[in-house]
Amino acid sequence: MAIVSRGFQGRRRSSDHRLPPGQYETRDFPVLSAGPTPRVDRDAWQFSVVTEAGERRSWSWRELMALPAERPVVDLHCVTKWSKFGTAWQGVSLDLLLADVETEAEYALVHSYGGYTTNLPLKDLLDGQAWIAYGYDGRDLTPEHGGPARLLVPHLYLWKSAKWVRGIELLVKDEPGFWESAGYHDYGDPWREQRYQGD
Amino acid sequence: MARAAVSGRLGERLRWRVATLVGQREETPTTRTLVLDVPGWPGHLAGQHVDVRLTAEDGYSTQRSYSIASAPDGALLELTVQRVSDGEVSPYLAGDLVDGDLLELRGPVGGWFVWRPEQTEPVLLVAGGSGIVPLMAMIRTRRQLGSTTPFRLLYSVRTPEDRMYADELQALDPGLEVTFLYTRQVPEGWPRFPSRITEKDLAAVAWAPETLATTYVCGPTPFVEYAADLLVELGQAPDRIRTERFGPTGG
How far is Cα A130 from Cα A93, in angstroms, rounded to an integer? Predict the structure, then answer.
């Protein structure tokens, strides 16, 4: 049972959106990452999917741009407590990128330029839930927000939406990523407040 | 694989605990240190943070994360909170609380932006504004242990009165070099004009790459982005630079 903080009024939400537990709304776009921002040249950029059998499918920047883009408008929830409503993105659905991949894997380990990794169940990347995003708010995605391209999987806490995405490794057995190895949750559902392992 | 930063059962470490405010110190005109007594506190590593939960009488509740400023000290824990003028939480924490008030917190959290006493390589700490807080925990932990690991601190503030922990930082620990940078207004007779951090400022304090030093950069996002980029341009390996960014929002 929560204790009451004497004299604390708080500020109720300022919009009609629902906030997950423990979150507050912000209107700007904070930046969080563990090290310097990698600078990735689009000419050298490549995105790969590797199956548990070692089969690899890769896309160059030009090939990614040639695929049909979607323009999802989604809410973001960061484990550091801020939520941002109605963010507008441009990117390619992972349903499209994964459509022809043959796999029995149930898990995905996402890899980024700069070495970052994060894990999540493969099914959370499908069914219109995830994109490789390269545009934000009508512009190219800037490096500090993950450009040239980042994973966008907005129904999970934002650390799962790996910036500077480079590839997805499909795994039969779950393997923890960077923050998950440091005690953050393997799944990270904001509505169930799965911030840390054990939540 | 990294391991959890402080061992012990996760459920225990992530349990909400009741903390009692037992002391306060104004650090600058806009920041205050809260001294909290947290029975059963499991200890922490320098650089980790806690989640603080506040609950209003009608049950409305909100949370924020704050870096720990103090070295491990039994059940006592210090947080330094910057008042954000239109913030929901910080004006309450760093303005309205009186000794004896209760808060809820859980932690420690974070196993990456930490300095572990067993690290022996030289360390560069680069702080912008309130980004000094987790770095101060590293300086204090080093002092508490009598560690001789070479430390340098480059601390950028707007004006001299914005320096947190100023007296403590000027009473130098052996092996700790402290350099202040002022971006708006300098003390009288100060040799450097006020300006944002430059490559020259960082070149003067960066350890040679072959020392395999670790650099910790903490502050507002534009400061961290800029300083980390300059460090990479100076030849520091990106994987030896750890960053923590404070958004300007939320308060």
Answer: 6
What is the pTM for the complete model shown?
Answer: 0.81
Q: Where are the alpha helices (DSSP H) in B43-191?
A: 90-91, 132-145, 166-170
The b/e string for A162-175 (b: 16+ C-beta within 10 A; e otherwise) is bbbbbbbbbbeebb
pLDDT score of A142:
94
Q: Tokens 């939540």 label which residue?
A: A199
Q: How far is CA A72 from CA A26, A130, B91, B164, B244, in A?
A: 19, 10, 36, 43, 29
Alpha carbon B51 to its chain centroid, in Å, reads: 15
Residue whose C-alpha is closest to residue B179's, from B108, B117, B127, B247: B127
Give the pair of three-digit tokens for residue A162: 């790996």
* Pick from B55, B60, B109: CB nearest A3: B55
What single-letter amino acid sits at B206? Answer: A
Give the separation between CA B144 and CA B152, rounded to whole angstroms.
Answer: 17
Specify the residue for token string 């912008």. Answer: B128
ipTM: 0.73
- CA dihedral for B251, B18, B98, B27, sign (positive or negative): negative
φ, ψ dihedrals at A10, nearest 5°:
75, 175
**Where do the DSSP E strands lie in B76-195?**
76-82, 102-109, 123-128, 151-157, 176-182
Tell me if A8 and B55 make a contact (CB, 8 A cut-off): yes
Chain A residues inside the 8 Å CB shell of B101: 5-6
Give the pLDDT confidence of B76-115 residue by residue, as tens digits. 999 999 998 888 899 999 998 999 999 999 989 877 899 9
Q: Which residues of A touch B63 (CB under 8 A)?
A: 22-24, 81
Q: Which tokens is B110 given?
A: 């974070």
By the 10 Å C-beta count (0-12 exposed, 13-18 middle, 19+ buried), A62 is classed as exposed
